[in-house]
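Sequence and structure are no longer studied apart. To make this concrete, we show below a single chain and its fold as tokens.
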Amino acid sequence: MKLFFSYLKSHCKTLFFAGTSVVIFCGIFALDNLPLSAVGYAALLSVCVGLVLIAADFLHFRKTHFQLLRLAKKVRYGLDGLPPAQNRIEADYQTVLQELYRGMTELVTDCDCSQRETEDYYTLWAHQIKTPISAMHILLQSDENENRSDLQDCLFQIEEYVEMVLSYVRLNSDNTDLVVKQYPLDSIIRQAIHKYAPLFIRRKIALHYQPVSFTVLTDEKWLLFVIEQILSNALKYTRSGGSVEIRLESGNTLIIADTGIGIAPEDLPRIGQKGFTGYNGRQDKKSTGLGLYLCRRILSKLSHTLRIESEVGKGTTVKIGLESTRLRVE
């Protein structure tokens, strides 16, 4: 019924003209004293013809309406389903739409090409920069310089930033190379611990971890990246003599808790937003906020969750929910 009223509204001028014409003719017939039967007969014929024309035109209007609705659902794939133009105005509208679609297609193609070139460049750069980093590692191992440990820390940070750039590029690409299957969580955690073990030792921060017997449906590489980022933040904001604890809670929630400086309450709701560093980030001028932003995006893709609780001066607890409701096993 709404469609019919919409049709009447779009033809209100035509209907008004037809109604006015009938009134004029009836008035003229009355003034000339013509028989009422002739007037009624002419009016009846006009109404019948008008109703037939209106019904035919409404059916065409209805058909076009549903064609356009179907086209709206697949318009991103092309304008091939456009109904034929019935007049010059419709043809002009279709020409405008086709030009807009062509321009949009060219713009999307250019953007895709530009994004692929950027991804290729940063991927190549990240792989090339690993060569001098590896060479620097070898040189430091054979060097007995008194600043060796500080240099190793700086080199480790460079490696982290390179991995972060590479992960950022991969995450924004069409193919994030997810390999989803069942993995032992203990193995993933141990890889992260092994990577950061030298930093725990040099900074004199205790690590408390009890092996867990739990398999998780996830992507090993991406979940490992998330755990590494959280451990990196814990080490960055925990002073010497502090501690970091890793444990499994409630069956499928991974807890990483530290005794660091904590996060201000007003910053907690925005933690993980792109570019947000909070009070701690403003104190540490080198912080970018990119790590936790990537963590949230990765965990969302993996159908996992991230929740952060913190108290200033007492520490931060990061909770990773390892549910896998939307993942498909390879």
